[in-house]
Amino acid sequence: MKALCFSGIQPTNVIHIGNYIGALKQWSDLQHRYPCYFCVVDLHAVTVTQDPKLLRENILNTAATYLAVGIDPKRSRLFIQSEVKEHAELGWLLGTIVKIAELQRMTQFKDKSKKRGESVGVGLFTYPALMAADILLYDTTVVPVGEDQMQHVELTRTIARRFNQQFGDTFVVPESLIQTTGARIMGLDDPTEKMSKSARSPMNYIALTDDDDTVRKKVMRAVTDSGDDVSYDPKKKPAISNLLTIYHHMTGTHLKDTEKKFSGKGYGDFKKALAEAVIEHIAPVRRKIAEYRKDPQQLMKLLDEGRDAACEAAEKKMNLVRDRMGLGRR
Ligand code: AMP
Ligand code: TRP
């Protein structure tokens, strides 16, 4: 069986260093090992209210970000989810396979609906069926994601197995690929909650598009723990441990070496070094995003090519699915 990698990011608000460390950074490494599809999942974005004009902007920003972090269009396909109609179609069909009780167990739904009260739409609830469709359409074997998506990939596996059992072998059962460190980057203003696009304050995250001074300001104002020892201990020192994890992913330096380097120096010196390390890493990404957005021709062409390739694969799979389920006519 051919190995294939699929992943996606919602084109909402900003893309932050949590998304980068937890997902994007491994994507650009993986493309050297597997054929990859990287999708801008706009149908997922509309599970909460979006401003249509802003959504279109964010879709192109997200696609530009994929390229700016090193997704190579010669190796990987990038495309926009809503331009391949089969995602919505298979999402519907898988909604008939998944159980209500299974969806009720999804922590992301519980968190998001709690924050939004009664006003959440049904789409937010059935979202894991759509995510399963994204993955299963392409015979995906590996799904590189941050820790928060592990439960959705597990459910995708359950759905695939159940479908195969009921209708005959149709889907490959995929596996998630989660990093050992950095799979859950915490908020700079609150190290007990994950860094999030939908955070109330921009002080929660560093966006890949933040300018140098903004990065400095956000890092220097990041919450720290009591004491002034730069040491890694996620239980007792969640804030500084989170910053150390970010430093590790920005510089490649081992935690132990960083602890040694800053021993006796206090939080201030470490934060200054962290801010400069983040800037060094993300400033080129920010500049590349701006370049791709300024000259959209290339981006449009790549998205057309990605869409065409994805459509071809997705159409084939959907023909098989309709056949297996006995839908329509032969
Ligand atoms: P989203 O922002 O929900 O579209 O997430 C896009 C990708 O980034 C998914 O693979 C998430 O698991 C990952 N991700 C989101 N937030 C974080 C975080 N705070 N730390 C690590 N990975 C994250
Ligand atoms: N649900 C994912 C998130 O919020 C995004 C996503 C949608 C995804 N479809 C996917 C990730 C398929 C991996 C594979 O982050």
UniProtKB/TrEMBL annotation:
Gene3D superfamilies linked: HUPs, Tyrosyl-Transfer RNA Synthetase
Recorded catalytic activity of this chain's protein: tRNA(Trp) + L-tryptophan + ATP = L-tryptophyl-tRNA(Trp) + AMP + diphosphate + H(+)
Annotated motif 'KMSKS' region, positions: 194-198
Enzyme Commission code: 6.1.1.2
Catalytic class of the enzyme: ligase
UniProt short sequence motif 'HIGH' region, positions renumbered to this chain: 11-19
GO molecular function list: ATP binding; tryptophan-tRNA ligase activity
InterPro entries named among the record's database cross-references: aa-tRNA-synth_I_CS, aa-tRNA-synth_Ic, Rossmann-like_a/b/a_fold, Trp-tRNA-ligase, Trp-tRNA-ligase_bac-type, Trp-tRNA_synthetase
Subcellular location: Cytoplasm
Keyword terms of this UniProt record: Aminoacyl-tRNA synthetase, ATP-binding, Cytoplasm, Ligase, Nucleotide-binding, Protein biosynthesis
Family per record: Belongs to the class-I aminoacyl-tRNA synthetase family.
Subunit organization: Homodimer.
UniProt-recorded name of the protein: Tryptophan--tRNA ligase
Species per Swiss-Prot/TrEMBL record: candidate division WWE3 bacterium
Gene: trpS
